[in-house]
Amino acid sequence: EVQLVESGGGLVQPGGSLRLSCAASGFTFSSYEMNWVRQAPGKGLEWVSYISSSGTTIYYADSLKGRFTISRDNAKKSLYMQMNSLRAEDTAVYYCASGWVRGRFDYWGQGTLVTVSS
Amino acid sequence: DIQMTQSPSTLSASVGDRVTITCRASQSISSWLAWYQQKPGKAPKLLIYKASSLDSGVPSRFSGSGSGTEFTLTISRLQPDDFATYYCQQYNSPSYTFGQGTKVEIK
Fold first, then answer.
1. CA distance B11 to A69
2. What is the arrangement of strands in the sheet containing A18-25, beginning at the earlier edge strand?
3. Nearest by CB to B43, which of A50, A59, A95?
4. Which entry of A10, A19, A55, B2 is 20 to 30 Å from B25 by CA?
5. Closest CA to A39 of A107, A92, A104, A102
6. Cα separation, B52 vs B54, whole angstroms
7. How many cross-chain Cβ pairs, A to B, lie less than 8 Å apart?
8. Is the previous residue joined to A98 through a cis bond, with omega within 30 degrees of 0?
9. What is the overall mean pLDDT for chain A?
10. CA distance A29 to A45
11. Is the peptide bond before B80 cis (omega within 30 degrees of 0)?
């Protein structure tokens, strides 16, 4: 059974940093493209970042302005998101999502809540 | 970035109804479109990919059509489990944008 389990969310002050992790199991992690997608409270879905199966191709949403960094460790079957200079508007549930095809989200984790507030 | 526009934003329907949701892209995305279902407090679930291909395990009452800039999701006979929010999403090119969502409510 495919499982994606996010962790690392929590309450952080504006300007602070947080590192999210996503542990994968039940599929060949190294063969899948990975993404982060977020959802602000009561709002719709927003794609955040993509990383190819090998880690060589990376994309970010323009709205992030260089504050977030995606990475993966295929040996550990894990995906990461380093989030710096956090703002109130980054408050959201962050989902990791895997896909067999670039940009498609076949499997989702349960999400981890990031709250940016003083 | 490619903008995705869904309509309607909210839809009230009864069990057994045929329901159609429309999604328009601001430029051609060929057939690189997916549909997701999300229930409150849960992660989204992939229903349809490449505009009309049903994901594994998804009931056949769901269907998708379209190409280029106009797409539709149809639920042939609405079931109690189908009351949820539905999102379209383009994966033609990054940013991989979503529509704003369509909430299907009980009439």
1. 38
2. A3-7, A18-25, A78-83, A68-73
3. A95
4. A55
5. A92
6. 6
7. 59
8. no
9. 97
10. 24
11. no
> SS3 breakdown of chain B: % helix, strand, coil, rounded to 5?
5, 50, 50
Which amino acid, residue B103?
K
Residues 6 or more apart whose Cβ sits within 8 Å of residue B60: B54
For B97, the token pair is: 């944008």
What is the C-alpha separation between A49 and A70, in angstroms, rounded? Answer: 7
Distance from CA of A110 to the nearest CA of B (A): 6
Question: With a CB-CB cutoff of 8 Å, which residues 90-109 of chain A face chain B?
Answer: 95, 101-109
Tokens encoding B102 = 């369509």
Q: Are A52 and A64 in contact (CB under 8 A)?
A: no
Amino acid letter, A69: T
- DSSP-derived 3-state class of residue A62: helix
- The string of pLDDT tens digits covering residues B12-48 is 999 999 999 999 999 999 999 999 999 999 999 999 9
Rounded to the nearest angstrom, the minimum Cα separation between A104 and chain B is: 6
